[in-house]
Amino acid sequence: MSISACCVKGFEWDGTPEGRIIAYPTASNQAYVAGSNDNAAVMLIPDLFGWRYPNIRLLADHLAREVEATVYVPDFFNGETLNYDALERTAFDEIDLHGFVSRHSREIREPEILACARKLRAEYSKFGAIGYCYGGWAVFRLAAAEHKELVDCVIAGHPSLLTKDDIDHAAAPVQIQAPEIDAAYTAELKEHTFKTLQANGVMFDYQYFPGVEHACLTRGSPKIERERDAMARGKNAAVAWFRQFLKAE
Asked: Which CATH number do you get for residue 49?
């Protein structure tokens, strides 16, 4: 499992999120919600910058419109956020990455994430999940066979803290969005993902992004062509995957 400095590199996008804040049963009892479909829902589990980060909320808005789903971005970090100002100044030494990850470890947050997913599964006939960086391991857990079809499909974008065991137990359809340069989602894990899902008969879509780094899908710069193209392609691939599995029967 891996978290590194690449997990906190990025660029804040322009635009104003259009969703709403609701009370929700998480550690902080809050979630950002976009869209209003009564039948299909998506839970977006954000990267280390959490549910307040504008890029994540803008992505939720896009997914809500283009998938035609209600998209939930719960706060799984108990109201805590990383230092955005330090990100803008690339002052990574000012970001307490180790402490943050320790306070919000897999062991601490997995029960809460599973509980939120079960709540949405009970409320919507179609339900999927997407997770970036930190959220990548979590969607693989939601897709595990032991959770008995909790999700109709999941998407993992440049996952962090992911293990081979997570990959081994995936059963729901999985889309993986994998940048070429990624210290967290290594070449070894990428190869294991491809071979294992294929061997286990799991439906999957492996999207490879050459020439870009970890976090490009949520914190890439619109001013850099290859990152801008990766963001657009990643969003479009996610929309297509969700529309395939969450559309009304």
From this structure: 3.40.50.1820
Closest to 45 in 3D by CA, of 104, 85, 87:
104
Mean pLDDT across the stretch 234-245?
A: 96
**What pTM value is reported for the model?**
0.91
Q: Read off the pLDDT of residues 101-142 as tens digits, 9 standing for 90 and up.
A: 889 999 999 999 999 999 999 999 999 999 999 999 999 999
Query: Is a pLDDT exceeding 70 seen at residue 75?
Result: yes
Q: Are 43 and 154 in contact (CB under 8 A)?
A: no
Read out DSSP for the chain?
Answer: ----GGGG---PPPS----EEEE-SSTTSEEEEE---SSEEEEEE--TT-TT-HHHHHHHHHHIIIIISEEEEE--STT----HHHHHTT-GGGS-HHHHHHHT-HHHHHHHHHHHHHHHHHH-SEEEEEEETHHHHHHHHHTBGGG-S--SEEEEES-SS--HHHHHTB-S-EEEEEEEE-SSS-HHHHHHHHHHHHHTT--EEEEEEEEEETTHHHH--TTSHHHHHHHHHHHHHHHHHHHHHHS--
Confidence of residue 13 (pLDDT cuts 50, 70, 90): low
Q: Give the tokens for residue 194.
A: 């491809």
Cα distances (Å, whole numbers) of residue 202 to 131, 193, 248: 19, 11, 22
**pLDDT of residue 38 exceeding 90:** yes
The SS3 of residue 203 is: coil
Question: How many separate domains does the chain show?
Answer: 1
pLDDT of residue 7: 47
Q: Which domain holds residue 156?
A: 5-246
